Amino acid sequence: MNIILIIGIVLLAALGAGRFGDRIGIPQVVGYILVGLVLGDSGLNIFSSSLVDTFSPVVNIVLALIGFMVGGELKYEIFRRYGRQFFIILLCEGIMTMIVVTGMVWLLTGNPSVAILLGALSSATAPAATVDVLWQYKSRGPLTTTILAIVALDDGLALILYGFAFAIAQSLFTGDGIAVSDVVLGPLIEILGSLALGCGAGFLLYGILTFIKKEDDRLVVTLGCVLLGAGLAEQLDLSLIMVAMAIGSCLTNTSRHDNEKSFEMVKSFTPPVYTLFFVLVGARLRVSLLPHIGIIGLIYVIGRTAGKWSGAYLGARLSGAADTVRKYLGFTLLSQAGVALGLALHTFQYFSRLGAAGQELGGVVINVIAATTFIVQIIGPVAVKFAITKAGEIPGGQCRSDPDQPEG
Known about the structure:
The protein is built from 17 helices and no strands. By secondary structure, it is mainly α. The relative contact order is 0.17. It has a single domain (52-279, 302-390), classed as Up-down Bundle (Na+/H+ antiporter like fold).
């Protein structure tokens, strides 16, 4: 089948699956992912690996749009009042997850290099599926606002933790000393470079929009600047999603009311490409990997879930967050995809050059991350819906929002 025909089939099948899932109480994104699973290598092989690879620009475009929309929620007044709370929660959930997974894998395998690498990778949280659930149910309240802040900041923390972990694992494996530049400089350049590029593109977008009144032109200019920033991020090996978040954050904090329409127009444009994106996510999942994850994979999933939940609870308690945030935030941080898989691939490529032992180490890391991604991509959206439902943040239900806590 030609690509146009495949896209038509995919969009219609995914819409049907998403609506069916919605009727039975499952987030629509799960339906999209399952359609991809059926059409991918694990099912009918219509969306083969080689075909999925040809859609990589679509994946990057959607990640940029998601980053832009999430960045639009990072408003200055919210961070001025609750920034300390967000950063305490972020540090607690990220570091606690790394500690728990590292400790459990080390006890099981006796291999500190594998343990610390998997521990660092476990800290990463994928925003796409989580944010899609929040948008589907139009959730609003302290939990929703905290989720958006944490998933926006989580990539930066994951890069820093991975920088430390990779340098330590490299030193333990090779017997060489730890280079400070590998631990600090690499992650710092990527984070600061991404933020600088994103802010530059964001202010450029704001400047252009001040001269444009026609809505269609505003949409074209907004998409153009977001994709410009994302493309430069790819070219410069920076974080694409972090650049897009910085663009969105700059725009929402400069003449907020004037620029609100830009976010609304982008959001109205995105449903078809979001649907295709999550089908591609499902097509990349490999059921065949599940039998191979073994005890390490099981321990990883258990440790990551326990670390995310306990760390989020501890951070929320220490920062004085709302009761709903303490109870339910941990359930919303389970999704894992892009950043974790990308860093796992980097680990595999590096250690595979270091002989048979290195190939084994890299293979364990990438197989565990790839296989467990399958599990959490299905469970994660369902857990998010459970959390926002129990927190009373879905319109139509009683919202138990604390007036002294941030609103979405």
